[in-house]
Amino acid sequence: MITSLIMAGGKGERFWPKSRTNLPKQFLNISGNKSMIQQAVARLERLMQIEQIFIVTNELYAELISAQIPHLPIENLIIEPSGRNTAPSIALSSLYIEERYPDSTIIVLPSDHIIKNEGEFVDILKTASEVAESGENIVTLGITPTYPETGYGYIESANEISTLNNLEVHRVRRFVEKPDSITAESYVTSGNYYWNSGMFIWKSSTILECFKKFMPAIYEIMMEIQHKIKAGAAQEAIHLDFAKMPEESIDYGIMEKADNIFVIPCKFGWDDVGSWTALDRINERDDFGNVIKGNILNIDTKRCIIESNNGKLVATLGIEDLIVVDTDDVTLICSKEKAQEMKLLLKELRVQKMEQYL
Fold this sequence. Notes:
The strands form 4 sheets. Strands 6-9-7-8-10 form a 5-stranded mixed beta barrel. A 4-stranded mixed sheet has the order 12-14-16-17, with no helix packed on it. Strands 5-11 form a two-stranded antiparallel sheet. The protein is an alpha/beta fold. The chain folds into 2 domains: 2-271, Spore Coat Polysaccharide Biosynthesis Protein SpsA, Chain A; 278-357, no CATH class. α3 packs parallel to α7 (216-230) and α6 (204-214) crosses α7 (216-230). The chain contains 11 helices and 17 strands.
């Protein structure tokens, strides 16, 4: 049995001011006529029934998910009482999935990615599931880099390569953090580094054993929660025990320590839409390299991203390499080179007690 877990608790802060605390990036229509989370669910429905798809989020977004994915069974919506990073989130969700579908293979995916070649993506997930089921294996999808991106983590492939269903399966040598520009350039040139997509496939028994081995503090709490779930006290377990879990990422807690990890190199038109500059990659540009959306008048404007969401005219003259986003209550003007540093603005809004704009 194959199941899936969609991680949908993020705030998408680098996509501010369009992405807000009460309506983050995954619930927006960035590309196409569906929100990103609706697209994520639709892709998985090509592989499994909706009953096999689980979504983990926080209480703030539960109603949004129910509104956007109304056919998702309510028991498949896993609510965290607080954000504890990805390791506790996956730990809690794995217990729920294990209770419903014992010994299943779990596909873990973010909710806010763009994937253009969905048929190829689904085929790769099938192969990744086969690899995961063939042993105590963790499988991740590595995106073949097309440029030296400094905003992604990377996966280094070892020289142990096998083939399954005409796809290469590489043993992972190591995971590395986001590099500087010179290091990223060397990764791309080497040919054996891949962008870390944050997509993982494993058997429920495999990930439980990894928690036991590498994150024993979380595993001990997991066992307490599992006991309470079986005793019908799931809500008590979530609200009391979940908050005790160390706040840590799955990458740091397990991926950087386990030695049974494999990566499948992928080219299926992936983008994590991590910041506004992603729109340059996923949208058509005009003759001057601009990405335009809304009521825009531009003259002598080059390589800009300009969006108006309220019908108000945005006029530009003689600007280059800027991001201009106009919403009902905020107008953002930002150089493209600073797009990854959006959190500096959000930090200052908090310092100045202007949380209404977050």
